[in-house]
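ASSEMBLY PREDICTION REQUEST
Request ID: AP-0331
Submitted by: J.K., bench scientist
Number of chains: two
Total residues: 345
Priority: normal
Notes: Please return the full assembly, not individual chains.
Input sequences:
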Amino acid sequence: MDMTSAVAATAPGDAPPRPSIQIVPRAALPVIAVIVAGLITTIAGNWLWALVFYHVVGGGLWTGIDLFVGFVIGPILGRLSIPSRAEFSARFMPMMVVIMPTVVLMTLASGFQLALGLGNLQSLNPNHGWLVASFVVVGVMATVALGILEPANIAVLFEMKKPHPDGDLIARLMRRFVYAAGITGAMQIATLVIMTRVATQ
Amino acid sequence: MREAGRQTVTRGATGGGYPPAAELATVSLALVVVGGVFMAASFPTPPPLALPIALVAVSAALLGSAILLLVRWRGFAWAAFSLVVRWALVAYVISAGMIEFSFVRNHASGWPLLVVTLMLVLFAVDVPVIIAVTVARYQSSHPA
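STATUS: Completed
Returned structure:
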């Protein structure tokens, strides 16, 4: 088995069949390959419109998803019963495994190129301080997301693939996921303030 | 490939406390992120390299310590760890490669590029290690 394959697991007794889980949804991989290839081409060509497109689309999705998960999905998830959480997570978490790294990569790679091209990273540029502040915010979000949120997400999926998943463990890991998503959601508000300042100076 | 999902459920696989390998790798990642912010904030002007080099050294030491703890961890679920780490490595080597490409595309060279490259290598190893340790911690080292 590899991390992209599915296991159709059935709970013992008369419990309803558990959903099969793909930790990394295979169908999404070609789409990601196309997005990354387009990003590399855009940076190599240094095309302003395409860089802005990648940055705005990626950043908008990243911010929107973080806020929505942190402040809407998270609290709802926290109030669900453990079986309901598990069923929701089995479908939701694999999507997050592929969507979030892709939109983050789109945003940061195009944003860095854009900042250099527009001269915003020059130390005398009025936007320089704001961009450094955005780097700090992104740095904190990256550490929380990569060090806490994503490992918890993947650990939940592995636990749910077991013949007898530990509900308490899933609940603990989900709580960790929800808190981390809340922190990154709150930090996205700072990103919105910074980016609207940069765009209007 | 061995099936992590078929392994028996044995909490922690260690029967008690577990070494803080994921925590050390997370601090290592945080140091690399601080260094990365410092380097990116100065770019395209070459920054003073003393702080980034110190961060790389401490980060590498922490990552090395984390790996050493894993090697000494009796009953660690290596099958689950290696299953996760290899896929995560693929993903994060691509991510790190994209960032490296951005710097090279914008004429980074010499020592600053070397320091950035070392930071990206640490980043590309740190994240898979954190993910894989977190997963393997809850897997058994013995197949069912």
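REVIEWER COMMENTS: The two ends of chain A are 53 Å apart (CA to CA).
SIGN-OFF: pending second reviewer
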